[in-house]
Amino acid sequence: MHEFMHRLGGLGDVDPLQYSGPAWSPYLVGALIGVLSMLTFYFSNKPIGASTAYARIAGMIGLAVAPKHTRSLKYFEGKPPKVGWELMLVLAVVAGAFLAAWTGGELTGKFLPAMWQDRFGSDSYLLRTLVTLAGGVLMAFGARMAGGCTSGHGISGTLQLAIGSWVSAICFFIGGIVAAMLMYAT
Amino acid sequence: MATITEQPPETKAKASPPVNSQPEAAPGKTLVLGAVFGLIFGFLLQKGGVAKFHVLIGQLMLVDFTVLKVMLSAVVVGALGIHFMHRAGLVELHIKPTRYASNIIGGLLFGVGFALSAYCPGTGAAALGQGNYDAIAMMIGMIGGSYLFAEASGWIGRHIDPIGDRGKLTLHDVIPVNRTGLVVAFAAVLVIVLVAIETLGGR
């Protein structure tokens, strides 16, 4: 099977550990994210979550293109598609990560991640675009159905000992491990 | 179960928590706080290495445990911190409903998307800031997928959400012991898991 796939796609063998790891201790970073959660609960009365921001943008575009239809959709009832806390959070994440990568000399400035390129070739722009796009669609659908993403369920929900969040987070990893093994294991 | 969501006791002396969750109530302050917290969150995600493509794929291939180390450390600190802040009446909890069918099906779909893009909704934004331009395709997909879900939300709400719907269920409802004791034990178990991961090697 693997031989077949190799010959079919000319896949390269990859080892994730041959690329650079985290700049800071993951324990320190995790602990600080835990403190950040306490701050968002206290000052904003909100748990950290990222996926809602994308749904807000989807709703805003929907309202501009097909306002009547968008207002008829159940999901947008009681969730006015507005620029809110969640969208500001995600936009600022881009800026914060830029600062971190810039100060740490880790800016990549590439479309194809190094490990992807070693696996699928340096000309796999179309494949990467389609796979990433499909990944985004599945993640958004899954996150909305499950009620949250890696942040909302995986951190904010699990730290409140919510059973649904633990079930969702474990399923994130089960689905991810199976798919990643199929794509990258030699 | 009802105790989870009720207002914190009126014992707080100062600085009542911002109970209003409507963005339009105090737009300016809300937006600025979102931006400040996002800036810190993005900075930490990048420094923690979880904005990197190969770190996320390495986690899903079970050779690089950086993602779990970051997540579980955050949960240990956050669980203890938020539990005690809640006990002191300083914060409200925000428990998402447990709906087994939707949690499992949605979770598995999310996981497959997670492996395909190698980003999640938060770390993908961090990856873009770091210079991984392919994250833009993930974000466009997220927006499309969100609308697609909205299209299906009526049907899912009628047919899937009710299956195994347990409401705002937490470990406290399943194991009815002293709340503080349970949170401390929960944090201790996660620390043991982290020690085990560290001992067993990998990154």
Automatic annotation (TrEMBL), chain A:
Keywords: Cell inner membrane, Cell membrane, Membrane, Transmembrane, Transmembrane helix, Transport. The chain crosses the membrane at residues 21-42, 87-105, 125-147, 159-185. Coiled coil: none annotated. It is a multi-pass membrane protein. Signal peptide: none annotated. InterPro entries: Sulf_transp_TsuA/YedE. It is found in: Cell inner membrane. The keyword Transport applies. Belongs to the TsuA/YedE (TC 9.B.102) family. This is YeeE/YedE family protein.
Automatic annotation (TrEMBL), chain B:
Keywords: Membrane, Transmembrane, Transmembrane helix. The chain crosses the membrane at residues 26-45, 66-84, 104-128, 135-157, 177-197. Residues 1-23 are annotated as: Disordered. InterPro entries: Sulf_transp_TsuA/YedE. This is YeeE/YedE family protein. It comes from Aporhodopirellula aestuarii.
